[in-house]
Write a structure and sequence with these properties.
Layout lengths: L6 H26 L5 E7 L5 E7 L6 H10 L1 H12 L8 E7 L1 H19 L1
Parallel strand pairs: 2-3
Antiparallel strand pairs: 1-2
Helix pairs in contact: 1-3
Length: 121
C-alpha cells in the first residue's frame, strides 16, 4: 500500500531519489557488475528522519542478498548521499533499502493471464 505523503515529503523524496540515482549511476558497475538495478521509489517519513529506497532488481537471483548488503553498507552510502545533498538539507535522513518486486509480480500475472487465455482457446 502506498503511503500518503504531504508536499514536503514528496519534495524531499524527489531530491533524494535524484541524488541516489546519481550515486547508483556513478557506482553501479562497481556495486552490481553487469546486473541492472533501478531506483524505483523513495518514501520519506513525516519527520523526514528516515528514507526508504526501493530498488528494482528483476531477473537477479541474488536480489535478497544484495539488499542485505546494501543495508549493511547503509552508513557508508548515507555519507555519500549526505555529501550530495549537503546544500539542500540540514541533515541527511537515515536510509533503508527494500526490494521492489512490482515488476516481478507484473510478469508473473502476465504469465498467468497468458495461460488462462490458452486454456480458453
Amino acid at each position: 500500500m502506498k503511503p500518503m505523503l504531504n508536499q514536503r515529503q514528496r519534495q524531499v523524496a524527489r531530491s533524494l531519489q535524484r541524488a541516489m540515482g546519481e550515486i547508483l549511476a556513478e557506482n553501479g558497475r562497481a556495486w552490481f557488475g553487469n546486473k541492472i538495478v533501478s531506483l524505483t521509489q523513495v518514501y520519506v517519513t513525516t519527520d523526514l528522519g528516515l528514507a526508504r529506497f526501493y530498488l528494482g532488481m528483476s531477473m537477479i537471483k541474488e536480489a535478497d542478498e544484495l539488499i542485505k548488503e546494501f543495508n549493511a553498507q547503509s552508513k557508508g552510502i548515507k555519507k555519500i548521499l549526505a555529501a550530495k545533498i549537503k546544500n539542500q538539507f540540514r541533515r541527511c535522513p537515515d536510509i533503508v533499502f527494500f526490494k521492489d518486486d512490482t515488476l516481478d509480480e507484473q510478469i508473473r500475472l502476465d504469465e498467468i493471464f497468458d495461460e488462462m487465455k490458452k486454456k480458453d482457446e
